[in-house]
Each structure stands twice: as structure tokens, then as C-alpha cells.
Design goal:
Number of helices of chain A: 22
Largest sheet of chain A: 2 strands, antiparallel
Largest sheet of chain B: 5 strands, mixed
CATH class of chain A: Mainly Alpha
GO molecular function, one term (chain A): monooxygenase activity
Number of strands of chain A: 4
Strand content of chain A: under 5%
Order of helices and strands of chain A: HHHHHHHHHHHHHHHHHEEEEHHHHH
CATH topology of chain B: Ubiquitin-like (UB roll)
CATH superfamily of chain A: Ribonucleotide Reductase, subunit A
Shape of chain A: globular
Distance between the termini of chain A: 80 Å
Strand order of the largest sheet of chain B: 2-1-5-3-4
Number of domains of chain A: 1
Order of helices and strands of chain B: EEHEEE
Number of helices of chain B: 1
Shape of chain B: globular
Distance between the termini of chain B: 39 Å
Structural class of chain B: alpha+beta
CATH superfamily of chain B: Phenol hydroxylase
Radius of gyration of chain A: 25 Å
CATH topology of chain A: Ribonucleotide Reductase, subunit A
Number of strands of chain B: 5
Helix content of chain B: 10-25%
Helix content of chain A: 55-70%
Oligomer: heterodimer
Mean pLDDT of chain A: 94
CATH architecture of chain A: Orthogonal Bundle
Protein name (chain A): YHS domain-containing protein
Pfam families (chain A): Phenol_Hydrox, YHS
Mean pLDDT of chain B: 96
Keywords (chain A): Monooxygenase, Oxidoreductase
Number of domains of chain B: 1
Structural class of chain A: mainly alpha
InterPro entries (chain A): Ferritin-like_SF (IPR009078), Phenol_Hydrox (IPR003430), RNR-like (IPR012348), YHS_dom (IPR007029)
């Protein structure tokens, strides 16, 4: 008996309709407000969730099929890279410190993004954004895992990779990326979407991924490069989601505009501050440079971002605040950041160094307005002192910004010789900031930021020593005790690259691969 | 303004004075000497003589800089919260009215850092 089947398969559009939107319903045993308790308190008004346009219309079966194929290719390349001792083909061992910075500072954020999108998706009554958040949440945990797998190969041979999870919650500089993401995931679902979905993924992500992935490619690191390419197709989807979020919220109600604008101002500034680490990596940590931080900022933010905000003007959105300051800062922040890690190289899980003469010349050429005048004399002085056996290790803890948690290293807009100091009195305490941006973010929600876990203050409160350590005992060495608490091995993970175990091992292993010893 | 929240949202400051075991935090920065990448944070007892900080603490903090030995402390200009401030080496922090998390800057006229670069 033949059955007449009118159509064998659903079309893509119908399939998407049935498999995503068609699965949602209005709850009746419990009120929708009780089921989605976080969706109103931020003040965002949504009248019709069906107006959400999903630009990708991906269903889970297609998602798995596509991602599994990508991941098979990725792991084949990573395995080949590991088996062929690919780590010995990077430009030189200083490059590996850029990978350390990535694994320690960025990969944990991928995992936090996974958690953030999972939580956010749970809070949206609309099925469209819920499904989009679910897929991005899966992307993010895949990225965390593939990064860990790609980079674990380096952990077999080099120092500073071994405890990135433990260090994230303890090591002073890691409080910067960590607090950035903690701030986002402790916000409401709409703010999270504007913070991470739009400001980070859409506006700033190119400034994070392109430098690291191109940096890997330029410096012979096939493993990290392959991971980056694999993630790129997901990033395209994330960017589209980020833009859709903004348009959707703004089209729903005119009252949403000022709230969204404040979030864009805040999160562009917060993200920009975190990107200081990337700027430093580009200008100082890649033996083979791609482009300067300043050039990257001009291409990826000023040109691309400028076009984006022109496009958003029809919704009433203006470009983020403090762009005039950022414009002036681009000549300075990468140098200020590298100087900071050079200062505190004893408490850090990657190495720092003074650039070679060629590299100093490259910096002079890329930064004609600032490098020779303000930064080259400092680096050359340090180099002279290091030659005399007097390498600078700053042993006193720095003052931190209450909002971004970066040491107060940034200078006044228009005066690169003067540290920028800002302060606010709130209740019975004083709070300090590196900039007008960080100060204003605090003033908007002081009750949130007064809880900040500032590493320097925590050390002075005695909260950064292992259990049983007695800070009042005779001969107590606070630095050693803090490094123990960090699980940082003194003399291996920290200090200058010159004379490091990484440097010695790399030279010896590469020598074995290329010479008859 | 507090914070957008689903219920009452109020917390104690993580860095309130009583958490520092009898010390207060004093921030101190040396203008035009940015070789020290940021101002410093020092935990100090309120009954500490200000001169003792200058004479006993600061050499360990700023002494690496070749300008440090050249400082004439009688000519140093002080700022508190970026406003001119009168130092007195013989008074304690408490007597000088320095509170928890106050920030001091000092300027050393004639000393402009490594090769005049404000480093």
C-alpha cells in the first residue's frame, strides 16, 4: 500500500519555526512574571517578543553537525602540531608569553561567557533570543575547551600555564579580566546582552581575536592560529546576534534608549580598559609584529566602529562616551602597560623583557608622537641597570582603580607626564579611579563596586596567604607567601625572560632539532 | 543612585578601615617619575610619624630611581587629593588629618625623571 507523502522534508524556514519558536508556550500554572523574574527590573520594556528576527535560523541538529565537522578538523591539526613539536617552530620563546597571557587572561572569560549566555537565555520569555543565547552559550564552552586543548601542549614544555584556573581568582592582574566578566554576569539579562553580546562581541571582538590569531600566524604558532580560525565562524554569528539585540531592544520602546546608551558607554569603556592587555601584547610580546596597537585601534575601532555608530544613529544612539580620551591614549597605553608588567615581573606568571634595538626602533617609528619622548629613555635606563645586575623589580604594591582594577598607570588626557587621579567619597569611604570613565561607572552603581575584590587591598587584609601562614612571625616574607598562595613558582614562572628556564629550554631543544650536538 | 536590583541591595565596603588590622591605607605617588608605573598603596598605623614614612619607608619604595637621592625634602611640594597640602614630618598621620585611603602626591621641582622624560 503506497502512502502519498506530499513533502518528504520540512523546508529550513518551517523547520526553524517548528523546532525553535514552536516549542515555547505561555505558562498558566505559574505567572510568566514568576517564571521569568529578571526580565523587568532593569527598566527595559519589551512589548512583542515575536518581533525578534533570528538572522541565522539554526536548529540544534544543524548546529551539532556543523560544529562536529569543524572540531574534527581542528583536533586533527592540533594533534599534528603536537606530534611534530610545533612549539619549536615559533619565532622565539618570548612569543610563548603571549600564549600564556591568552590562556590565563582570556580563555576563562570564554567559560564565563558560556555561563552568562546560559543564564541570560533562561531569563528571556521570547523563544528567539533564548535559542540564540543557548547556541552562543554552547559556542563559548566549546571555545574554552578548544583553547585549553590547543594550549595544553605548551604546558608540557613551558612554565606559567599550569594553574590558570587557580590563578584567575587570585593573581593581581587577572582580577582585571575577571572583574570585567563578573560585572557583566551579575548584571541583568538585558545589560549582559548589551555588555557582552553587543559592546564586546560586536564592537571590540576584532581587537581581541585578530591580534592574537594573526599574531599566532605571524609567529609560527599553528595550534593557536587554527583554533582562532575555527572560532571565527561562530564569532560572525555572535556579532550578528549582538547587533540584533540592540536593534530589537531599541525598536520595542523609546524608553529603552537612555538605558541602552548608558550600557554602551559603560561597556565600551570597560572593554577598552581590558584591551590594554592586548595592546601591550601586540606592541611588545610578538617577536614578529603584525601591526601596532594604535594601527589596530584605528582600523578596527575608529573606522569600523565609526561606521557602526553612524548606522545606529537612526535609533538615537550616539557613539560611546570618552572617545576623545581614547583617541589621545592610543599613543600611550601599550607602553604604560608593558612598563607595569616589567615593574611587577616578580609577581607575574609570564616573563617580561626589554625590547631589542630593532624592536625599539619599530616602536619609535610606529609611535612618533610619544615613544622617544616618554618611553624609550625609561626602557633604555632599565636595560642599562639590568646589565649591571640591577634589574628593576618593583616590590611595593600599587594603588588600583576601584572599577577596572588596573593599577593607576594611566595618564591625564593631554598630559602623558601626569598620572590621572580621580576620587569619590561614598558613605564613609574614599574611592579612587584611573579615569573619568571608571569614576562615572562607579557613581552610577556605587553599591556594586564597593564590594570589589581588589588584590592589593586583599593582600593587606591578610586574605592572600595560605592557611596556617602567620604574617606576624619573625622573618615573614610577604611576597613569597603571596606567590605560594598564587601557586606561582618563584624563579620559573616569573622574573625576566633573560635567563629564564623557558629561554634555556627552547634554545636547547631547537638546537637539538636543527644542529648536530 | 544605588543599583538596579530585584530586591534591597546594600553592602559593606570590602575595604573598610576595620579590615586592615589597625592600619590605614595611604596612597602615595611621585609626580613626573612614571618609572614607578603607578602610585603606591601602603598600610600604615595612624600613630606613625609622617617623617618616619619619608625617612624609613620611602627609600625602599622609590630608592631605585637615580633622582631619589637628590630630593631636597624641604623643597618638596605636597598635594592631598590633588590639592596643595602642608606636610609636617613631626606629626603623626592622625594628627595631620590623614584618613583611610587618602592619597598624597609629591612634586620635586628640578627633578624631571630619566633624561627629562618624566620617567
Amino acid at each position: 500500500m503506497d502512502m502519498k507523502v506530499s513533502k518528504k522534508k520540512l523546508g529550513l524556514k518551517e523547520k526553524y519555526q517548528h523546532m525553535t519558536r514552536g516549542l515555547g508556550w505561555e505558562t498558566t500554572y505559574q505567572s510568566m512574571d514568576d517564571v521569568f523574574p529578571f526580565v523587568k527590573y532593569e527598566g527595559i520594556k519589551i512589548h512583542d517578543w515575536e518581533k525578534w528576527e533570528d538572522p541565522f535560523r539554526l536548529t540544534m541538529d544543524a548546529y551539532w553537525k556543523y560544529q562536529a565537522e569543524k572540531e574534527r578538523k581542528l583536533y586533527a591539526i592540533i594533534d599534528a602540531y603536537a606530534q611534530n613539536n610545533g612549539h619549536l617552530s615559533v619565532t622565539d620563546a618570548r612569543y610563548i608569553n603571549a600564549v600564556k597571557l591568552f590562556l590565563n587572561g582570556i580563555s576563562p572569560l570564554e567559560y564565563m561567557a558560556h555561563r552568562g549566555f546560559a543564564m541570560t537565555g533562561r531569563q528571556f520569555p521570547g523563544v528567539g533570543p533564548r535559542v540564540a543565547c543557548l547556541m552562543q552559550s554552547l559556542d563559548e564552552i566549546r571555545h574554552a575547551q578548544t583553547q585549553i586543548h590547543s594550549i595544553s601542549n605548551y604546558n608540557k614544555y613551558y612554565n606559567g600555564f599550569h594553574e590558570y584556573r587557580h590563578m584567575l581568582e587570585r593573581v593581581w592582574y587577572l582580577s582585571v579580566p575577571r572583574s570585567f566578566f563578573d560585572d557583566a554576569v551579575t548584571a541583568g539579562p538585558f545589560e549582559f546582552m548589551v555588555a557582552i553580546g553587543f559592546s564586546f562581541e560586536y564592537v571590540l571582538t576584532n581587537l581581541l581575536f585578530v591580534p592574537f590569531v594573526s599574531g599566532a600566524a605571524y609567529n609560527g604558532d599553528m595550534g593557536t592560529m587554527t583554533f582562532g580560525f575555527s572560532a571565527q565562524s561562530d564569532e560572525a554569528r555572535h556579532m550578528t546576534l549582538g547587533l540584533e539585540v540592540i536593534k530589537f531592544i531599541l525598536e520595542q520602546d523609546p524608553d529603552n534608549l537612555p538605558i541602552v546608551q548608558q550600557w554602551i558607554d559603560k561597556w565600551t569603556w570597560r572593554g577598552y580598559r581590558v584591551l590594554t592587555l592586548v595592546g601591550m601584547m601586540m606592541d611588545y610580546m610578538l617577536p614578529k609584529r603584525i601591526m601596532s596597537w594604535k594601527e589596530a585601534w584605528e582600523v578596527y575601532f575608529e573606522e569600523n566602529g565609526g561606521a557602526l555608530f553612524k548606522d545606529l544613529a537612526r535609533y538615537g544612539i550616539r557613539p560611546p562616551k570618552w572617545l576623545d580620551q581614547i583617541e589621545q591614549d592610543k599613543d600611550h597605553i601599550s607602553h604604560q602597560a608593558w612598563a607595569t608588567f616589567y615593574n611587577y615581573a616578580a609577581a607575574c606568571n609570564f616573563h617580561t623583557w626589554i625590547p631589542t634595538d630593532d624592536e625599539l626602533d619599530w616602536l619609535s617609528q610606529k609611535y612618533p608622537n610619544s615613544f622617544d619622548k616618554y618611553y624609550r629613555p625609561r626602557l633604555e635606563h632599565w636595560r642599562e641597570e639590568a646589565k649591571k645586575g640591577n634589574r628593576f623589580y618593583n616590590k611595593t604594591l600599587p594603588m588600583l582603580c576601584q572599577t577596572c582594577q588596573i593599577p593607576m598607570i594611566f595618564t591625564e588626557p593631554g598630559d602623558p607626564t601626569q598620572i590621572c587621579y580621580r576620587e569619590v567619597d561614598y558613605k564613609d569611604n574614599k574611592y579612587h579611579f584611573c579615569s573619568d570613565g571608571c569614576k562615572e561607572i562607579f557613581e552610577h552603581e556605587p553599591e556594586k563596586y564597593i564590594q570589589a575584590w581588589l588584590p592589593v587591598h586583599q593582600i593587606y587584609q591578610g586574605n592572600c596567604f595560605n592557611e596556617g601562614v602567620d604574617p606576624t612571625a619573625e622573618g615573614f616574607d610577604p611576597l613569597a607567601a603571596v606567590l605560594d598562595y598564587y601557586h606561582l613558582n618563584f624563579g620559573r614562572d616569573n622574573l625576566d625572560f633573560e635567563g629564564s628556564e623557558d629561554q634555556k629550554n627552547f634554545d636547547e631543544w631547537r638546537g637539538m632539532a636543527t644542529k648536530n650536538v | 543612585m544605588g543599583v538596579a536590583a530585584i530586591k534591597e541591595y546594600e553592602f559593606e565596603a570590602a575595604d573598610r578601615l576595620e579590615n586592615f588590622h589597625g592600619n590605614q591605607l595611604l596612597y602615595i605617588g611621585w609626580d613626573q617619575h612614571l618609572m614607578f608605573c603607578a602610585p603606591f598603596c601602603l598600610p600604615m598605623p595612624p600613630n606613625m610619624r609622617f617623617g618616619d614614612i619619608i625617612e624609613k619607608v620611602l627609600p625602599g619604595v622609590f630608592g631605585y630611581h637615580p633622582d631619589f637621592a637628590k630630593i631636597d625634602w624641604s623643597k618638596v611640594e605636597w598635594l592631598k587629593s590633588s590639592q596643595p597640602w602642608q606636610a609636617d614630618f613631626n606629626k603623626t598621620l592622625a594628627e595631620l588629618g590623614l584618613k583611610h585611603k587618602d592619597v598624597l602626591r609629591f612634586r620635586t621641582p628640578g627633578l624631571t625623571g630619566i633624561k627629562g622624560s618624566a620617567s
